[in-house]
Design goal:
Low-confidence stretches: 4-33
Number of helices: 16
Mean pLDDT: 90
Radius of gyration: 20 Å
Number of strands: 10
Structural class: alpha/beta
Distance between the termini: 27 Å
Strand content: 15-25%
Length: 360
Amino acid sequence: MGITKKITVLAVGLGLVTLSACGSSGDDDASGGGSRTVTLVSHNSWAVSKDVVAAFEKQSGYKLKVLEDGDAGQAVNKAVLTKDNPQGDVFFGVDNTLLSRALDNGLFQPYEAEGSDEVLPEYRVDRDKHRVTPVDSGDVCVNYDKAWFDEHDLTPPKTFDDLVEPEYEDLLVVENASTSSPGLGFLLGTAAQYGDEGWPDYWKKLKANGVKVVDGWEQAYNEEFSGSAGGKQAKADRPLVVSYASSPPAEVVYADPKPDTAPTGVAEGTCFRQVEYAGLLSNARNPEGGKALLDFLISKPFQEDMPLNMFVYPVLEGARVPEEFVKFGPQAKDPQTMDPAKIADNRDQWVKAWTSLVLK
């Protein structure tokens, strides 16, 4: 979840080196018993300020190593496949749309992180077993290119219903619900809006209205969406994209010069609330280091540093939210939500039905 670091890179014209891991076998220095290195496995949205990491390393005595493993869905699937010989000690980035997959497959071992009682109650799950720790929240929403709609004298859509209207034909790009976390979040948002029986008809209308489906968020946002910095470079032609409520402030923060207003907006009637979790991996080689890292992830320094690095909201009660979020990317007032148990019961069959309906 969250705006991946790659939006930062595209906005400032730099390159990105993504770390990957092929398992921790024989890597005693990374996560072996008694090691002073603790390894975090994450999707490629992980980002934190160097001084905050330095403070953690000084306080805990552990050196932090981060392994990034692609989109959230890909990272979770790989973590499940390697759970008997995990790549690291802590996994960060499983959200409420995929949580049951991780828990049902025994990905995590129990640990109640220090400070868990200060996490906002609405984000706490698995309270009996404490297998995961809430870390951040965000809203998957349709974003729109303000300049495009101004130039075409067209009012941007506000709701799911608007997206199937003829004036928005061939304007929307979405991510594949079977391979992308925001793509799945958007599918669940439509299921929450239209119900178990109604969402397929809605997607039939979206398909008839020219919705474009791509594999993941990076391609959708940075290559297909005309309103993003990356999209402008790629000469993208879709002014509507499934992204996040925090995407507009990201476009402001990384612009040079910074604009007075965000170049993109959010259709608030299309939002679905996601929550991301971290957990101590089963068979972690350095469980004590992993516990220290989980404590760190819900500490105030990390929670207040996180928004302008990963463009997500803190879950710690009283954590300060940056001004850019308040001005350009407030959380949706009434997002769609869904009980994790319902997601667990329906996700796979919904994704299968969606794939058959939209991609074939």
